[in-house]
Amino acid sequence: MYHTQGGGVRKVFDIYNSTTLNLFTDASVNKKSHTRQFDDVVAGCLPLFYSDEMQYLDRCGKFWMLEPTYQYIRKTTNNYGELYGLLLAFMYIEQLTTGRQLCPFTTFNIFSDSKISVCALRDWLPGWLRHMDENGIMYNSSGAPVANQHLYHHILAVISNIPDWVNIRIFHINGHIDTRKLMHIKKAYNNFLNSNRYNQEFVSFKDYFALADDLHQANNYIDNYTRHLLYDSNSTGIYGRRIEPNVPIITERYPHPDFKRISKIFSFKYKNL
Questions:
Q1: 2 within some domain
Q2: Where in the sequence is the domain holding 252, given as residue range(s)?
Q3: Residue 3 lies in a domain
Q4: Is position 247 within any domain?
Q5: At 250, phi and psi to the nearest 5?
């Protein structure tokens, strides 16, 4: 069975559709010591779109680039930063689709090289929601509280505010791929099929090879972008403030996540929650 995201099987080539915005997320960590559990992290989100019309914007491969967003986070983990990058993507979508101006995009693809973050949102979240107590605390299959769960709650809350006409899909892709090397592309392709639950009949190697340069160039761009900001002490992102990872994120705007909307995006059964 094909894995579906956002209601129905769609060709990966939708990334070259002018009504699609592709958001690439990543995080860079400042490993000052191998004995430290927590380090400074910069999470980022790179929005890219394709258009045949002349645009007065920067380019990344075949794409036009909108302004990246990022957040500088002190004393946290790389996994927290990767998940925060996904949060930035959802916040970007929310900002575009709930504002006063008409949004030219109807489909949003989110690409992350963090398999654990993508799997957590797409595969493990249903179980966590089923094991959520009356205080909103989610528990994993071992009965322990889910790590970084205030970020998951914030992502769920933001999703609840995104209009129903918006189609969102999440993909895991390999990071640090040299597309000049065929073996790198083959490895990235196989991992893409496995981690996103596609088969070769749906996405052939020829298909993937045709878009590999653009996918991995964008991933490398956001990786380098966050790494550069990590060592720039004057960095301030579009969302502005620096936060400590254990400070709860304010979600008063979204007191009750819309699980029906959430299940549509992450492709699990609402009735099972």
A1: no
A2: 12-272
A3: no
A4: yes
A5: -70, 125
Query: Is residue 152 within 8 Å of residue 125, measured between CB atoms?
Result: yes
The predicted model scores a pTM of 0.83
CA–CA distance, 40 with 227 (Å, rounded to integer): 11
Walk along the chain (273 residues) and give the pLDDT tens digit of each residue: 233 343 333 455 578 888 999 999 999 988 765 555 668 889 999 999 988 776 667 778 788 888 888 888 888 889 999 999 999 999 999 989 987 678 889 999 999 999 999 999 888 888 888 888 888 888 888 889 999 988 988 888 888 888 888 989 899 999 888 888 888 999 999 889 888 887 777 788 888 888 888 888 899 999 989 988 887 755 554 333 333 333 344 444 344 556 666 666 665 444 444
Contact 9, 2 (CB under 8 A): yes
Place of tokens 């009965």: 143
Instruction: Provide the β-strand partners of residue 243.
Output: 73
Residue 100 covered by a domain = yes
Q: 74 phi and psi, to 5 degrees?
A: -95, 145
The CATH number of the domain where 91 resides is what?
3.30.420.10
**Half-sphere exposure (Cβ direction) of 224: Cα atoms closer than 13 Å:** 8
How many domains does the structure of the chain reveal?
1
Amino acid identity, position 31: K
Strands (DSSP E) along 61-101, which ranges? 63-65, 69-76
Pick left, alpha or beta for residue 255 (phi over 0 → left; psi -120 to 50 → alpha; otherwise beta). Answer: alpha
